[in-house]
Amino acid sequence: MEYTATAKYIRTSPRKVRLVARAISGKKVGVALSALGSIPKHAAEPLKKLIDSAVANAVQKKATADTLIVAAIDVMGGPVLKRWHAASRGMAHSYKKRMTHVKVILKDEEKGSK
By C-alpha distance, which of 81, 73, 76 is closest to 104? Predict the structure, then answer.
């Protein structure tokens, strides 16, 4: 069975979150959480909270946390805040503050391997 959790409006760019998501995709939940604890990236903390939430959803539906694997992590772009920075000669340079939506799908190990 699949168990999901979604986090929206994470204030980190999708490219930076995908780097961390690829490192933990396909691993057991315990291994993924311990790996996220040691990855020195800003995106590791929201992903760790999201996997904890997905595990809580699975446990609420009578699944055991020991048999879960991270089946997929979908990292999607969210809204973009467009900002301006004052430059010389009265000009302005634009930059974008990107946000990310992330969806985690956990599966039971027995059913995921069949």
Answer: 73
Query: Domain 2-109 is of which CATH architecture?
Result: Alpha-Beta Complex (3.90)
3-class state of residue 79 by DSSP? strand
Q: pLDDT higher for 111 or 90? A: 90
- The span from the CA of 105 to the CA of 11, in Å, is 21
Residue identified by tokens 């069949």 is 114
What does the domain layout of the chain look like in residue ranges?
A: 2-109
The alpha carbon dihedral of 61, 109, 64, 70 has a sign of: negative
CA 25-26-29 angle, 5° bins: 85
pTM: 0.88
